[in-house]
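Hey L., structure's done. Input below.
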Amino acid sequence: MIVCSGQWQQAQDGAVYCLGTLEMASVGPFGLPALTYGEANAILGAVAGLYAVVWVFRTLAWFIKSHARDR
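Output:
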């Protein structure tokens, strides 16, 4: 994320420019530290893995429950 040390101004054509110095922010949105692409991908991979595990267990539970009624 880029922050401006001064004020942001908007030109007549709609362009936005900084009256100070542009700097890279070390803190991301919501006050959390900024993530690298690798860290963000690791988190997304973990969430996808968790979703897959929950789906497998729910499918197995449904399968076992539906076949237990057939007996």
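Residues 36-71 form one domain. The chain has a mean pLDDT of 87.

-- N.
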